[in-house]
Amino acid sequence: MNSSFRALLIDRDDDKKQSAQIAEVAPDQLPEGDVTVRVAASTLNYKDALAITGASPVVRQFPMVPGIDFAGIVEESSNPNFAAGDRVVLNGWGVGEKHWGGLAEYARVNGDWLVPLESAFTFAQAMSIGTAGYTAMLCVMALERNGVSPESGEILVTGAAGGVGSIAVAILHKLGYQVAAVTGRPEEADYLTELGATRILPRADFTEPGRPLAKEQWAGAIDVVGGQVLANVCAGTKYRGAVAACGLAGGMDFPATVAPFILRGVTLVGVDSVMCPVGERREAWRRLADDLDPTVLQPVTTAATLDDCARLADDLLAGKVRGRIVVPIGE
């Protein structure tokens, strides 16, 4: 690796005005790490959009290459677990926030952050899944650990037309669950039904303060919204059900009572994908290879170029993007 390469670079001037543009980057500008990866594909996630637009202080240091996901081929390695030519995937670990991420032709990282890419997936398919799908799988595994099975009853998925929600619906359907999908976009009803949802519920049913205990409806739930929505989801969960919470698109507050937890024995499970231990990551990707039908990825995915990312970031934050945005780079 001797020549410069293209990257989406976020920087800010002396007045702290932020900008994002495609730049030519020299190899010696790459951050420290024991594995250099030739990126085949990356993604544009909600967190990346926050970083690119500066809508939230996601970026911890400048300049920064966003991209919390990437998949590619190891170019150079001094890490004993990886060798040149290995196919790998990365999700999280603060990449794209405090360590240069995947929206570039090359990435250099700590090899302990990498996971071998399952042979079932192409690079583009791995990024159709990305952090969103990997998080969805972690949520499904959390429900299973807490005793929720297809026989337990219906599973609720909030933010169902988004990246995590779309793939969660598809995984749950493949595993035999009945899925109720919550969305604020009624025009996506057919899309969600095709993914496997058997019931579509309007987001408006969950956004206003409700009773501490609502009618018992679902045996488990995957929530990406937080805030009032999560409070109402917990209130409607059946006795000894479980709710996996992995997002805060609706806010960080949790205006709930303890009633669902102490009167119905409901379990609220926090799911963190960023610092998740490697063993659980590998299991999640192994499960994705078994439990996610790759044919569902195509309608969930929109392709974009590196040059498109800055423009698409605004659309993503405005809720105008369905499913996943994959950014093929070197595949």
From TrEMBL:
Segments passing through the bilayer: none
Which species is this UniProt entry from?
Gordonia sp. MP11Mi
The domain of life is Bacteria
The Enoyl reductase (ER) domain covers 17-327
What is this protein's name? Answer: Acrylyl-CoA reductase AcuI
Query: Gene3D superfamilies recorded for this chain?
Result: Medium-chain alcohol dehydrogenases, catalytic domain, NAD(P)-binding Rossmann-like Domain
GO MF term (any one): acryloyl-CoA reductase (NADPH) activity
Enzyme Commission numbers on file: 1.3.1.84
SMART domains annotated for this entry?
PKS_ER (SM00829)
The alphabetized UniProt keywords are: Oxidoreductase
Coiled-coil annotation reads: none
Q: Does the keyword Oxidoreductase apply?
A: yes
Pfam families this protein is in? Answer: ADH_N, ADH_zinc_N
